[in-house]
Amino acid sequence: MSTKWKRLRRNQIFLLMVLPATLWFIIMKYLPIFGNVIAFQKFTYHSKGIFHGIWSAEWVGFDNFKFLFQTNDAFIITRNTLLYNLAFIILGIVIPVALAIVVSALTNKRMSKFYQTGMLLPHFLSWVVVGYFVFAFLSMDKGFLNNVLESMGMEPKMWYNEPAYWPYILILAQVWKTVGYSSVIYIAAIAGIDRTYYEAAVIDGASKWQQIRSVTIPHLKPLIIILTILAVGQIFHSDIGLFYQVPRESGLLFPVTNVIDTYVYRSMKEMGVFSMSAAAGLYQSVVGCILVLTANYAVRKISKDDALF
User: Fold this and answer.
1) DSSP string, 43-111
2) What are phi and psi of 41, to 5 degrees?
3) 73-306, what's its fold?
4) What whole-number distance in Å separates Cα of residue 172 and Cα of residue 57?
5) In angstroms, rounded to a whole number, what is the distance separating the alpha carbons of residues 85 and 235?
6) 147: Cβ–Cβ under 8 A, 6 or more apart, which residues?
7) DSSP conformation letters of 253-298
8) CA-based angle 174:98:298, to the nearest 5?
9) What is the 3-state composition of the chain as percent helix, strand, coil, each rounded to the nearest 5?
10) If I label 288, which of 103, 131, 142, 237 is the partner at 20 to 30 A Cα–Cα?
11) For 79-203, where are the E strands, in sequence order?
12) Cα distances (angstroms) measured from residue 223 to each of 170, 218, 228
């Protein structure tokens, strides 16, 4: 019996444990990759099935990609996508790390668990629910903010007609929904730091801030770098729930809420052209992969141990 077969027999229980997840990953992640061929075709749904539609579709090369770059809104949707994601990346590092440090410093563990649970709950809400929460605050007639403005003798605002406020509203909604999940990751990392480092810092007379700067942050740096590299790979992607559900499809807000994903979705809904949507998704994925490789290469040049791979 060969060595490989013996190793397989010895680890068969563990292999069976990971088999369902492996099959799910292959079916849901790898097999759909072949569907990218639609991006280079004039694909239409066929009554005989999707595979027959792909097989019989006309090849058009890179014509579907022109849909993103030749539109009058190309600059606006690209600018919005990049700027929003840059804000999400920066705030997605600073705020979760700060919250994780504060929560980890609490001596009352029951209160610490309570705060962690409270921060994590918004992560499990859908953007539809969050959209209604935002509407409860910003509604013209019964919105909480307009009621406050009227009680102060000020005129209520038509928030869904005012584009100037929405970059801040969308960023606030994104941070509120995602900061808890990110904080839990950093809290777990802080819990894994050897306490002897803090004890040594206290013996040396370090203050709380000095302990954070000299012990906590350096130990969190590898995790921060890895999560940042992965976030850079998503810089051309947008959460369609945030940009589609929360602004409630207000046309007056499109200059500040329209991103690549919402533009593609609306175009597909109106024209029913799947090939253009596939081309946009492939473009985002390729650019994201290049950005991840570039960011990881830059990190390796500075600090090889902190790189993702």
Assistant:
1) ----TT-HHHHHHHPEE-TTGGGHHHHSSTTHHHHHHHHHHHHHHHHHHHHHHHHHHHHHHHT-S-HHH
2) -125, 165
3) MetI-like fold (1.10.3720)
4) 44
5) 5
6) none
7) GHHHH--HHHHHHHHHHHH--HHHHHHHHHHHHHHHHHHHHHHHHH
8) 80
9) 80, 0, 20
10) 131
11) none
12) 26, 10, 8
Biggest CA-to-CA distance, the chain: 87
Number of H-type helices and E-type strands within the chain: 16, 2
Say what the pLDDT of residue 34 is.
84
- For the chain, domain boundaries: 73-306
Q: Which SS3 state, helix, strand or coil, does residue 158 take?
A: coil
Q: How far apart are CA 296 and CA 50, in angstroms?
A: 38
What's the pLDDT at 42? 83
- Reduce the DSSP state of residue 308 to 3 states and report it: coil
The encoded tokens of residue 247 equal 């602004």
**How far is Cα 167 from Cα 182, in angstroms, rounded to an integer?**
22
Q: Which residues share a beta bridge with 42?
A: 58
Which phi and psi angles does 58 have, rounded to 5°? -80, 135
Query: With bands split at pLDDT 50, 70 and 90, how would you rate the model's confidence at 136?
Result: very high
